[in-house]
């Protein structure tokens, strides 16, 4: 899990002093490539895999949030993708109806993720399963360059309203965070049998360029780009 603690200026907040605008602090938490490792157990060999999966990460998330609160900072929690595939539990769940009791859905909702990016392996169990999971989540599941033939619960972009703590006793307006997430360009090849006529994958960079004006129009002050596997990029709108 990667996290950062940075300071941003809120243009709409009343300044603490006439000469300077108020400032707010934001901590960004992100997980990636969990691959259905909820408790860190190998169900094929019936043994521990040497880590505690999402259950173990949950304690880190709690600690990071407490640290942010102690420093009077807001906190946002994201995932970069590749959540749904990678374990025997994931394979079994993909064959069952998705309800709020779905183990991964229940964990993500309980932990209060703000948004999820879609990874190419999240397509491995098919579009109907992906739609069902997205529909059961309390947070947006985003893929900027995946275009579904039929409208569904996935989003190309999203703006998350992040509450900010008061600064010097002055209330702060919520921080509007614009979120984008792209699949690797080769997803169209890797998951061709799943996509077929149900969806198409477009160029990541071109998709980001076309979605950026939508974030701008929607009022996104900070833009976060979630890329599966290795990075979460950030741009501050001036």
Automatic annotation (TrEMBL):
Q: Where is the signal peptide?
A: none
Q: Which InterPro entries match?
A: 5_nucleotidase/apyrase, Metallo-depent_PP-like
Highest taxon, organism lineage? Bacteria
State what protein this is by name.
Answer: 2`,3`-cyclic-nucleotide 2`-phosphodiesterase
